[in-house]
Amino acid sequence: MEQIKIKNSNLHVDKKVHVDLVNETLNIISKDSELTSYLSKLTADPEVIKRSWLEIRRYIESNKLCKNCQGYYNCLKKEASDRGIVSYLTYNKNIDKLEEHLCECKYLLQLKKVFKQFDYSDFELSNLYLDFVNNLKQISQASSNIENSFASTIKILIALSDKFSLDTSNLGAYIVSDNLNSSFAVKFLCMYMAIYKKLSCSIIDANIIFNDINSYDNNLKLEARANLEKAESSQVLGIVNLGLEAKSKSLFESIILPLIIKRNSKGKITYISSYYPMEEYISNFYTYKSNSVKSNIALFKKSLKEFLINDVSLF
Hints:
This protein is an alpha/beta fold. The protein has helices at 15-30, 33-42, 46-51, 53-63, 106-115, 125-141, 150-161, 181-196, 206-213, 218-232, 249-265, 278-283, 291-303; strands at 4-6, 85-92, 97-104, 118-121, 172-176, 201-205, 236-242, 269-274, 304-308.
């Protein structure tokens, strides 16, 4: 982030008040060994410290809530514009004083680094990250012995994801649940791959992007196709809510199925969430059990392993 310099204030105060404020600031510094050490690295001149009392006070005020910080989402700063922002001082030899600057904290920088791994998302990435952190904590504490639970399924999928290699054909996951668990799982896995595997990721909502591609509105169609192009180029793609898009055999055969097959052939991994088991989802596009159904199910199964989550709630 570009440094934001706070100009030295032309603060006019009563001389006695000024002296009191300077002395109060010096007293605060003397009682804080960490602050004393920090300032000594900037200047050895006590007069510079005295002249910079206002900048030092602003520095202290800006960073007082940052001690023992537990991360960006636990930031204690109330104003949204202050979240993830910290203050630091530099010595300006031209004015022989310290100057205060603002920059993004290490946690916000880490967060932005994660977000850069995403080529496209139909969902707010900061919300996905927060869900990921909360779910990770719950998963680590949950028993993995409960078959088809959210936690046990995620642990299996993480183990499979850890074997990901661009040099081979990678088996994706088709995750089914009758609630939001499968969607949470796909979003979790994409965030996991972005953070721990440093892979490019995208997450799309089938109910939005595939419906827009199938729309009669040409502008909507073009925008959706452009977004899908960005998403399908990612090493990891999450498709959420598959089956909620408008029922269209041509959309399935010309867009959805080729997308899955193409990604698998290129060694990319795809995670899908749906309320429909795989065979039921594909059968929605046909009036009877034709060879096409069997063939398409076989193509899906070649690229995706089906998982069922039975939890009533998340865990």
